[in-house]
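thought: fold this chain, then report.
action: predict
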Amino acid sequence: MRLNVQGELAANRDNFIKGVKATLVAEKPIKLGVHPGIEFSAESPQATFLARVYVVGPRPYMLAAVTLKGKDDGPNINKFFSSFTLTPRR
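observation:
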């Protein structure tokens, strides 16, 4: 069985946005090494969300950062996202 990568990325994005009752603001394709992903931002009345979803092998992985509306936590969010790497299994 082959995974529909783009469909899996979109489904994870949509489920996240629905779960936090937000609206999609922007989206762009990204990669973690050779693994495809998307980065998207969303907003609700109380918060802004920045999330990244990657498909690694047969599994999706999501990282998300939430900031209260009106706050700027960009440097910490960038530090958080850049702290993740993939290590091959032994």
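thought: worth noting. Strands lie at 23-32, 35-43, 47-56, 59-68.
final: tokens above.
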